[in-house]
Amino acid sequence: MQAIDLISLLLPVAAASGWYAAKKHYTRKYLTELANPMTQAYRRGINYLLDEKTDKAIAAVAHILEQDSEPLETHIALGNLFRRRGEVEKAIEMHKKLLQEPDLSVPQKEKANYELGIDYMRAGLFDRAEIIFKTLAQTNNHGKAALQQMLLIYQQQKDWHNAIACILKLRRIAKPRHGETAAHFLCELAEEAMTLHRLKDARDYLGQALTDDHDCVRASIAKGKLELGNGEYRQALETLRQVESQNPRYLPVVLPLIRQCWERQGNTQELTRYLHHLHEKFGFISAAVELAERIRDTQGIDAAIDYLLPILEANPNPFSISRAMALLAEDRSLGSNKMRRLCALLQATTADRLRFQCEHCGFSLSELFWRCPSCQHWGSILPTEIGSDSPVREGEIQLVN
Ligand SMILES: [Zn+2]
After folding, report:
1. Tell me: the pLDDT tens digits for 218-240?
2. What spacing in Å lies between the alpha carbon of 362 and ligand 1's midpoint?
3. 366 C-alpha to ligand 1 centroid (Å)
4. What DSSP element (H or E) covers 77?
5. How far apart are the first and last CA of the chain?
6. Model pLDDT for residues 235-289, shown as the tens digit of each residue
């Protein structure tokens, strides 16, 4: 209030004839408020809070409470301070006590209830929190915030059906805070169904996931794996190849699955064509290295190295170079025993496996999770360029066409 009053003194309205009288009035009001013991107590409390001195902040706010005739904001502030300090029981007590006040308006009751719901969440009393947030979800003032809290509860409890219902309501009014999508929750249901060998249910959930989000890489990979495990190679290929248009950054994840499909069909020609395509369209070096292995098998080591060397010179990458050297060393006519041993060492140190990183918080992992274990964001973990610390960027997988 005081800051607003001061700003109002600086406005061009000052040119008006009543400026002097207004100045006197507001200056007096400002000085009076500053001198008010309640204002001083508030300021003291806020300063303690800003200095992270929560003990002193609680004492200051409790002092205000004793004298305050409008207790709502102060009660809520004190309750929140308790919660912040980890004293959730005291916070619950404070907010419950406030709700017993007979004169609270409907918006005030909603506000106090919301804080109580947050207390219950913090205490792990999700059932009680859910009851409160379900009621608040119907209100104008707290509808969005209540749905966001319900979404957290359902994810915590792995209640994916309710999480889907919640996200469908929420996405009409707000962007989900942690990248939540119905498609991810449907994939969770599909994975549960697969664990229980309910393959039809799993297929249905994955189909629904792709209807909800056409670019859901996770659903395509899960469906591809399901069909591959079932010996349905053609369907698996059709699904897995969708990843290319959904998000090519996941190609390092799907390539081994696609290779399996063609190898099990005995169709290595198609695989060779596909590897060419991946390298030409996306500049995908791993595809070029695999292609070199195939060239070695059909045309010999010289042809393989002739093909691979200019590619690696243009895109030096420790992992690809070590694979190329191993390729060379495998040819016994060229490589000595010692060279083969050195190449094996090099390959071991460059770690012949994918690494992943969350593009939201930077957390690094050795396997793909669809929800970041660190920041809890969905769909933010991507394969990294092997041998590098940074995620594969759109620009790094060159789009030639
Ligand atoms: Zn993260």
Report:
1. 999 999 999 999 999 999 999 99
2. 6
3. 14
4. helix 71-84
5. 60
6. 999 999 999 999 999 998 999 999 999 999 988 888 999 999 998 888 888 888 8
